[in-house]
Amino acid sequence: MSRHSILVLSLYEEDYMYATFEHLMSSMRAVATVKLVTSAKEAKSILLSDTPPTAVLSIDAAPTDAKYVALNYQLVRFAKAGGTVVFGCNFSNHFAFGSDGPFFRAWGLTWNLGEYHRTTVYLNKNGVPGMALAGLEPSYSVKALNLAKVPTNLAVYSPSSSSRTQSHVFPPTSVDTSQAPFAYTAIGAGFMGYAGDVNAEAPTTKVIMAMLHLSVDQVGPDRRNRNPPSRPMFGPGWFNGGTDTSSVQYIPEPVRVIPSRVTPTTPRPREAEVEARAARRKIVDQRKREAADEVKEKGNDLFKVGNYDEAVKLYKQASKIYKPLPAYMLNLAAAYIKLERWSEAEIAADDAILVDPTLLKAYFRRARARKCDGKYVGAIRDIKQCLKMSPNCADFKTELAATRRERDAKNGFDGDKYEAEDEKNEDSEDRRYKASLMFGLGREFIPESTLHVLDCPSDSEDYEHQGRKDRQVKSPCRNYNHEGCQLGKGCRYKHAPDGRSVRDELGRNVCLHFLINRCKSGDECSYAHEKLYLPSNGWWNDENLGGWQELYDFVNQELADGGFDRIGSAMNGTADIWRIRTNLDLLVKDWTRATEGSLYQSPDEHNNDEEDDDDDDDNNDSEDGEDWSHEKEMEERERNMGFSDLELNELLSHGLKPWDDDAWDVLHAIRNDHA
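^ thats the sequence. predicted structure below, dont judge the formating
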């Protein structure tokens, strides 16, 4: 019998996840020829070749993406011709709600995405057509994205009536026994399988092997480290010891609860829609959190062996997969400190403090970064904060004295008088500092607290929809933000959030101009004009509107070049934390000078206001000019029924009006002819 050949699709190129599935990959290589491809073009070429593979394993969710719809149909044809296609590994982690319908319909199936939880599941005693179940575990605990509407005879595993959800946070509850984490079905002369396990459990390796018609007898023991050591903490001993790592301690990171959104006490008319959407978002949130934590742990492993550059990349990757949690930012700060990239370490620690100002380690690491960068006033303030939180720590007292001595030695004079002046102006400095933070993440304020809620970006079709590319329209869809748009991804207008709106709990984009009482469009505005479905603890309900109205007025007066787009992404929380500080540094300084007058600044800080630029994430720098000119274009399109002034003039020159039904089609044809 010829050796099986397996084509592994990794079109999203999530190579940071490969180690997670190494147990499966090594097991497959033991009994089959395995080829991994990252290009749809190459995959299609192999599938259409004279020697196609015996089976295909997609380890990410690319086939559910509209971008790869042609490849998905190619996989369907491959299966119908006698091949086997399995979707597993990291596939379910990014399988977005809303994309399941089109995906499964292409396969001729009525399956849908179901619940997401961990529970104990049991092997189908009656067998599954086309799949050998011998050697599979009779039952095991698995966290998975389940499928609904799977016929009983096609469910490889399913929960029993005694199965309960298994969580470290929530109490056990019953589960839907009609849903299945693993399913397998005939497609023409071949087969298609789904493995919804999100954690790559060891028994799942055998399940996927069986789906691919590979012998499970060759599956060896899982030697992956399923419980890596806790992430590093650098205590005062390490701080005093410079770069000596002998005193590095590994202790568990305490769980810190970020306050949840405040829910309204009076029921809202569309509350059921809000709850349904929140439930879907929760599933996405959980999946992204787990994927991000996996990446963070890989970063920890690299940190421990001294590979700090790669650790930085993984900590930042974790922040982008999910959101910049304090745990990720603290680890990032530690790695930057090891690399002596002081400014970046300061920013990372600063972001951790922004989310949770009770983190002693964040102040401590920021103090280290500031001290090494010559920013002694800030370093001393941070060490004093550490002493407030831990008054009896002798190491902090020693470090405070050492930092003062280093400051005085560098400046050539006694800095106590400047420190006293700094204490005197502490309130003013705090206002300046908080003004800077306003641009960091665009937080939603909890009453009487600086804590804020971080949002995990959605991966829904509407969240990603920027308008049909062939229409070249950046205007928001008024129907989507008001009555609702029925065109979906076929709509020529934008459904995605942008720097001029904030997403509400119905998924609509609410006008930021409206929220600060500065919208001139009124009922004609393309964005929603309603706060009812925004979180009630947002800055939009503060008496002073979070200071944004004041800042907007200042920006409009002082900066004519797209000023609003400089602050919009900070107001709604979509700002890229790796770019926003550099882009808005001058704006923050101008604003604080205008609102507070000249602030005290010690001699050592006069030449240390460096603009930070992350070498790892310069890809977006070219977009800044486009973002800042976006406001002018948006105003043109709102005025011209979606057309820019240039497009409108082009239409008029051909005898067309912007309200003509075929205006867009004609404009598109004209431009194609010119091209």
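The two ends are 56 Å apart (CA to CA).
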